[in-house]
Amino acid sequence: MQEHVTTHQAEEDARNDAIFIYLNGEIVPKAQALVSVYDSGFMLGDGIWEGLRLYDGCWAFIDDHFDRLFEAAKAIDLDIGLTREKLVEALLETQRANKMTTDAHARLMITRGVKTRPFQHPSLSRSGPTITIIMEHSRPSIPRPIRLATVPHMRGLPMTQDPKLNSHSKLNCILACIAAEKAGADEALMLDINGFVNTTNACNFFIVRKGAVWTSTGDYCMNGITRQKVIDLCHSHDIPIYERNFSLVDTYGADEAFLTGTFGAQTPVASVDGRQIGTGDMGPVTRRLRGLYKDLIKEECS
Predict the structure, then answer these.
(1) Using one digit for the tens of pLDDT, what is the confidence trace for 217-253?
(2) Could you tell me what percentage of the chain is helix, strand and coil, using 3-state DSSP and rounding each to the nearest 5?
(3) What is the number of other CB atoms lying within 10 angstroms of the CB of residue 86?
(4) pLDDT under 70 in the chain at which residues?
(5) Would you tell me the crossing angle of helices 225-236 and 284-300 to the nearest 10 degrees?
(6) Which helix (H) or strand (E) holds 289?
(7) Is 188 helix (H, G, I), strand (E, B) or coil?
(8) How many angstroms separate the CA atoms of 129 and 82, rounded?
(9) pLDDT value at position 1?
(10) Whole-angstrom distance, CA of residue 168 vs CA of residue 129
(11) Within 13 Å and on the Cβ side, how many CA atoms surround 20?
(12) Which residues contact 260 (CB under 8 A, 6 or more apart)?
């Protein structure tokens, strides 16, 4: 069995060596897409981001992504400096420059900008935001279901760093991922502050028990757009769905488990803490939801 895989593993694509990147209003070659060491994102992780996926010429659920982006900007008191329409046009301009039509992934990043001195206070960021769009040819290539390990790292309380915020400050999740790999797994399963199963370091987490889909309450996990689409699909197709507290005991005894995210959509989970989940492969409910999600994408992009 292959040692480690990730939920963002993609096929190698030589075209990515020559991509163009949007940087502060200009489209530049990859090698020239440079930001200052004084940038607040580099220096302090002071920024927000969105990941978007291109299917057959359509950026799926773009309104949901931009709603989340502008809400995050308001939450951290960051003036993006562009209207929503201008930012969408920047995304499309980057797509055209790269001649991308499908199987592409965009990471749109906005930081508070270049600081005048290397210190924390946001008033030192006086040159306006840094806006970057990295767009790559990206076809998922996840060769087997994911192995998870529970780690001691938690997604925090809203009064520390709200886990619903898509911020550049990801060290907590990176440490969780490192801990999982040290334990021989692919990625980390993180609990909430009460010890209930919450999320992974990179994706939202679901289990299936006796045909019913369970996921966390959503109080302590990332505000996943794909997560919400799966919940909505369950409601609209009479698949029992529960947003509830559940434990590792419930998880170990599940018939299926899967992850959701913009990149991988629905990714099956083989095991948690060395316990095989169901058959260790994609189960029938996960497979059905993956098919329904593909249909939803087609409807969105029609």
Answers:
(1) 999 999 999 999 999 999 999 999 999 999 999 999 9
(2) 30, 30, 40
(3) 12
(4) 1-2
(5) 100
(6) helix 284-300
(7) strand
(8) 10
(9) 46
(10) 14
(11) 17
(12) 203, 204, 206, 224, 226, 227, 229, 230, 266, 267
